[in-house]
Amino acid sequence: MCYSDEAIFDSVIKIRKLRFLFSKLFFNWIEEKMKGGGDDAASSAAASASGPPPSLEWRFSQVFGERTAGEEVHEVDIISAIEFDKSGDHLATGDRGGRVVLFERTDTKDNVGSRRDAEQMDYSVRHPEFRYKTEFQSHEPEFDYLKSLEIEEKINKIRWCQPANGALFLLSTNDKTIKYWKVQEKKIKKISEMNIDPSKDPGSSSPLPIIANGVHADKPQDYLSKDFPFPPGGIPSLRLPLVVVTSLETSLVARCRRVYAHAHDYHINSISNSSDGETFISADDLRVNLWNLEVSNQSFNIVDVKPTNMEDLTEVITSAEFHPIHCNMLAYSSSKGSIRLIDMRQSALCDSHTKLFEEPEAPGSRSFFTEIIASISDIKFSKNGRYILSRDYMTLKLWDINMDSGPVASYQVHEHLRPRLCDLYENDSIFDKFECCLSGDGSRVATGSYSNLFRVFGASQGSTEAATLEASKNPMRRQIQAPARSSRSMTSVARRGSESPGSDANGNAHDFTTKLLHMAWHPTENSIACAAANSLYMYYG
After folding, report:
1. Backbone phi, then psi, for 5, in 5-degree steps?
2. pTM of the model
3. Which of 21, 148, 208, 378 lies 20 to 30 angstroms, CA to CA, from 7?
């Protein structure tokens, strides 16, 4: 086939135009990456174009350790820590009795069964289901004789480490000691044969009864060395113990690999793994220490806020978290409501911060309770590391690490309790430390409250989602209509979620003895695990 010169020329022009267009798109993408937007900018643009995701309808999934009506809850059984691993296939809880309980997921495709069962299963409505895996005693109560101080066995934090060779690894800590655990399935070994055949005993004409420890019932324990005659050439019927490893039976064994102790003078409030898989940090009220998982007798102090004179102490560290991607960056919060982002490449002791995130105090709003309710009890990075979620007594705040002028969104959780701050101070409820969590895609945030309630908010731009749910088999009975909120922008902070003063979603008085302090969001799906006293509730949306 023959082409004219004009057709060839037109084809060349079209090819050049396409090349120019692709080059322009590529350089625009590079420019967005250099500005720090990257995938976040692309996802934000897509979200803006399609609008906020629809509100979720939360459903009950499972409960472990459910209480019957009137059943008394023992103090040692109350759950004090919850954590999913990165894959979402395992869940760990710690309690005040020093125990760690592990759960494993059962609804994965590997556990479905036959192909016909898989075809019949509707994966669009499938949600994570877990079963009990094992438990072990992580910490025991101790006593510091030098300081005359009792050390509780309560588990403060649990963090999963990278699995290896089919074994699970995790860190658990109480107030003073961090432990590194390995949990692995091992095949059960059984002893099938042992000792001497009594029917061929040359020292007796008739067999004697043998008791459980392998000796004759009517002879002393040391008769083999005194009365037993060994014939020349040995005993042909003597059989050594034979250990048989069964191929079907296995048992889970938890073994403490390392103990990281004597590094904190004050109570440990946080531990966090680095993305390098080799190091982790631990934080107490005044210091943050850096550890190597393989070295238990040495740590490096990277943050120290202890003043020379303790009378000059004005704030303490309340929480610390490693950046999920950059192993050189971490953030820690303080009792004054500020968050500091530090870069360990700057200096060995990170006295100065890279960025400071704090909300300016409104003029004329200061009171006796201002600093107490401003104290941040928990911080979490989003999965991509772009945002930090913080929880103080009154609110949830979402911070963009590229913007330190103020939070990009604020969610009212306990604003309706402001008239009752005096009562909360007298019964010490004002010092309760509520945790917070983000969904894997960063589109929603959640935190707990009183009366075993927890709240879920939409974090996408333009979202008005705000759900109040109860930790029970019917979570939606506490559901209320969410008030509209203004769109989130760089100049104005979105605030929503307020309720009627002094009451819950149904207008009932709050029960300050039942509080939902600990919760975790599944890393890849819309599933939440939360602790109500000794019960572990799981929900999906």
Report:
1. -65, -35
2. 0.77
3. 21
